[in-house]
Amino acid sequence: MGDNPAMTAILYPVAPDVQTALAAPLARAAREREAVTAAGEGVTFVTEAVGPAFASRAEALAAHHAWVEDDRGAGPPPEDRYCRLAELIEGRPPPPAQPSLADGRRWPNPPPVPKTLWRLQVSYWRVGAAPVVDTAPQARQARRQVREPMDYRALKQLTRQPLRPVKPQQPLDFGLFEAPMPEAPGRMMPDE
Fold first, then answer.
1. What is the spatial distance between Cα 39 and Cα 126, in angstroms, rounded to a whole number?
2. DSSP codes of every residue in 50-102
3. Rounded to 5 degrees, what are φ and ψ at 57?
4. If we measure between CA atoms, which residue out of 123, 167, 147 comes closest to residue 35?
5. Is the pTM of this model over 0.70?
6. 38 φ/ψ angles, rounded to the nearest 5 degrees
7. Alpha-carbon span 22 to 78, nearest angstrom
């Protein structure tokens, strides 16, 4: 970072809730260990929506111009870009289109575009929040267990789960640029 002074890390607020993160955070930290030192206890990195919803991006930008970078590049300095505008679907998303194969056309006319709303999302280090330990089964296992179609809220919940391995990763037996010798498979040789 010494060669490029324009490159900076985002300094996320350290706060107990999202309102405090915007108004008066305890400190600002780029890394978890810095946030733990500032808070004096455990922290969890979270992203939460805050404030009212707006019908258009332009309205949301006008209301939150001090927090969010706009299309012209104006906005907060690089280390203060911990907020963003997110477009959310209002209500239930439309069902997927089924192929019709009628009148020489494979797909029917597309469904109407769902109404969307824009909200401010803030990423910050939440103080005192233990990491969420999810004991729910993985998405593919949960979908196999359920025979009837799942509710869209349940599907959305499954997509927001952190990725977990199916089984623990096995340690590598040899390095990246090594291969077993043809005449002695128990010995490794460089493969560069």
1. 9
2. EEEEESSHHHHHHHSTTTS--TTS-SS-GGG--EEEEEEE-SPPPPPPPP--B
3. -65, -35
4. 123
5. no
6. -70, -40
7. 16
Q: Which residue is it, tokens 């324009």?
A: 6
Q: Amino acid identity, residue 49?
A: A
Query: Please, how many CA atoms are within 13 Å of residue 163, restricted to the half-sphere of its CB?
Result: 1
70 neighbors 110 (Cβ within 8 angstroms): no
Per-residue pLDDT of the chain (192 residues; tens, 9 = 90+): 455 555 578 899 999 988 888 888 999 998 889 999 998 888 988 888 888 889 988 898 888 888 888 776 677 887 888 898 988 887 777 777 778 787 777 877 777 778 889 999 999 999 985 455 455 666 667 767 777 777 777 777 777 776 666 677 766 666 677 888 888 888 888 876
**Which class for 76: exposed (0-12), middle (13-18), buried (19 or more C-beta within 10 A)?**
middle
